[in-house]
Amino acid sequence: MSLIKWLALIPFIGLLGGTYFANKVTPYIFGMPFLLGYCVIWVVITTVIMVIIYKLDPRNKEGDVQ
Amino acid sequence: MNAALIIIFAVMIMSIFLGIRAKKGKDMDLEQWSVGGRGFGTIFVFLLMAGEIYTTFTFLGGSGWAYGKGGPTYYIIGYGCLAYIMSYFLLPKIWKYAKENRLLSQSDFFVSKYKSPYLGILVSLVGVVAMIPYFVLQLKGLGIIVSESSYGTISPTVAIWIGLAVVTIYVMVSGIHGSAWTAVAKDILILVVVLFLGIYLPIHYYGGIQPMFEAVEAAKPGFLALPDSGMSPSWFVTTVLLTALGFYMWPHTFGSIYSAQNEKVFRKNAIFMPIYQLVLLFVFFVGFAAILQVKGLTGADADLALLRLSIQTFDPWVIGVIGAAGILTALVPGSMILMAASTILAKNVYKVIKPDLSDAQVTRTARYLVPVVALIAVFFTFKGGNTLVALLLMGYSLVTQLFPTLVFSLMKNNFVTKAGAFAGIGTGVATVTYITITGKTVGSIFPFLPQAIQDFNVGIIAMIVNLIVLFVVSAVTKSTAVVNTKTEKAL
User: Fold this and answer.
1) At what angle do helices B176-206 and B279-291 cross, to 10 degrees?
2) Statement: B3-385 belongs to CATH 1.20.1730.10
3) pLDDT band, very low/low/confident/very high, at B7 (cuts 50, 70, 90)
């Protein structure tokens, strides 16, 4: 877990650092302006990363939610 | 009475009904009332927190920004995403500590961690000052939605009074249980409305989403990206970061953390929240669709983009459904704010001044403060004028100043002392106030810096001042603090 959780930093780098390079309208991504599509891709990557972190986090094995 | 009005009133009555019914079978002490007896599962907590993204500000403001500002709007997607990542690590810690110490408000957290009821008063005042304009914004949005979607038959003033009466009643009766149940209705309705509008309008007017963006790009080249100065990439990055830090610092959001049943709820939500906020994309699409269809909305009127475009496109009953969804986006956050403000004023301000109050008296005070806070908000809604705009801009920056003190307090060896916490928050808040009132930007304070740095969100300055003061004062007072923690017991 301890190493895996550093994955969570990746979206920060991508969304914050990448904006300087992604700031353009074309090409369109999923029909959206490039910058907006770029943000959306990072939201999806974030979700994937959070799933990985969740699955590998031993604290989520104990107890049930509902 | 037209179809739109009937639907709007039906939804208002339903939310009163849901709100009051939520109380059933619960003994309403302060713990039940303000944090739902810490019994909410994943779905309720999810909806209460999602309530934070779908406020009237995002509903009207998100589409309004897309219409009026273009590219900079995307920041809304960015900050939520980063805030949810942090929530995975921060929220379980906050929840656990709150449960172990039976905390009921955000201020309680600072009081308990820093062993200082007076820090609690400072945090409470910062929170209330930030929340009132936020609430006023919801009320103004509600007024706009009802008057527009009733085709002008109900004035904004009347709408605001009715909306306020609805929230006040169900908050007084059911507290957070009422908010949770209305949140269910709200999210279902808003999801349907937003997806429908965001898909239908671009197809109807442009033949698709990409054709719409192409048309906008042809008419206003570069509008769909960030400008080179002003709201440039530097502005974007710093704003996303600061807003993400401030996200959970609102007293009502912080309070809803306590309502969870267990800490796993937050880790699970951290997976779904980022993807769920993509619904906002469809709100943006509506705003972009309006650019070439609804001409001439400038300044604050840009917020009318969604409603105006809908009115010129649909039959009254559709407008009624949109209006009803819009009203719920105002009522849910509004109810959370009313409750959080009343709780902290009763427990963290009044009780500190009059320590001999019993728990039952504090609970009663909190409940009776609900209409008082509501009336104060109404006063500012009708009489606020320009001061209100300044306060609104300040709200988010103000609560963000609580972030460093809070995060350091979660560390095993917190080096921040009580005095450091006071000084850091105090100077941060003072800096925000000064900067907002004088209308300074990073560029006007440091004109010799490169443009990229001049465009930084001005909140960065307050945050840096806050951190420096926090470090210095904590280092200086370290030795005295050790003595203090031994001799004092908070609460």
Assistant:
1) 40
2) yes
3) confident
Closest residue of A to B85, CA-based?
A8
Q: Are B146 and B393 in contact (CB under 8 A)?
A: no
Residue in chain A closest to B227 (alpha carbons) equals: A23
Nearest alpha-carbon partner for B130 in B462, B345, B395: B395
What's the confidence (pLDDT) of residue B187? 83
Write the DSSP assignment of B190-201 as a string of letters: HHHHHHHHHHHH
pLDDT tens-digit readout, A26-53: 888 888 999 899 999 999 999 999 898 8
The pLDDT value recorded for residue B485 is: 55
- Cα–Cα distance between B192 and B24 in angstroms, integer? 29
Cβ neighbourhood burial of B319 (10 Å; 0-12, 13-18, 19+):
buried
Helix (H, G, I), strand (E, B) or coil at B260: strand
* ipTM of the complex model: 0.89
Q: A65, B208: Cβ pair inside 8 Å?
A: no
Q: What is the pLDDT of residues B435-446, one digit of tens each?
A: 877 777 777 878
Between CA B12 and CA B18 the distance in angstroms is 10
Q: Measured between CB atoms, which of B233, B240, B275 is closest to A23? A: B233
pLDDT band at B490 (very low <50, low <70, confident <90, very high): very low
Closest CA of chain B from A45, distance in Å: 10
One DSSP character per residue, B4-73 reads HHHHHHHHHHHHHHHHHHTTTT----HHHHHHGGG-B-HHHHHHHHHTTTSSHIIIIIIHHHHHHT-GGG
Hey, are the CB atoms on B224 and A33 less than 8 Å from each other? yes
User: For residue B118, what are the contacts with CB-CB under 8 A and spacing of at least 6?
Assistant: B352, B422
Residue B269 C-beta-side C-alpha neighbours within 13 Å: 30
- For residues B460-478, give the mean pLDDT: 87
Backbone CA torsion sign across B90, B96, B101, B103: positive
Contact A46 B81 (CB under 8 A): yes
List the beta bridge partners of residue A32. A29
Model confidence at B102: pLDDT above 70: yes
Task: Provide the 8-state DSSP code for A13.
Answer: I
- Going from the C-alpha of B52 to that of each of B59, B187, B235, B391, the distances in angstroms are 11, 11, 23, 19
Token pair recorded at residue B1: 């009475």
Neighbours of A49 (CB within 10 A): 22
Domains of chain B by residue range: 3-385
Whether B200 shows a pLDDT value over 90: the answer reads yes
Cβ–Cβ of B262/A63 closer than 8 Å? yes
- What was the pLDDT predicted at B285? 93
